[in-house]
Amino acid sequence: MPELPEVETVVRLVRPKLVGRRIEGATVYWPRTVGDQGPDAFARSIEGLRAVRIWRRAKYIVVDLERRGRAAGHLLIHLRMTGRLQVDPASSDGGKYVRVELALDRGKTLRFIDVRKFGRFEYREDLTGVFERIGPEPLDGDLDAAQFSRELRARQRQLKPLLLDQSFLAGLGNIYVDEALHRAGLHPLRRSDRVPGPRARRLFDEIQATLREAIRREGSSFDTFYRTPEGQPGSYQHQFRVYGRQGRACRACGRTVIKIVVGQRGTHLCTRCQPAPRVL
DNA sequence: ATCCTATCCTGGCTGC
DNA sequence: TGCAGCCAGGATAGGA
Question: pLDDT: is A247 or A199 the higher one?
Answer without folding.
Answer: A199
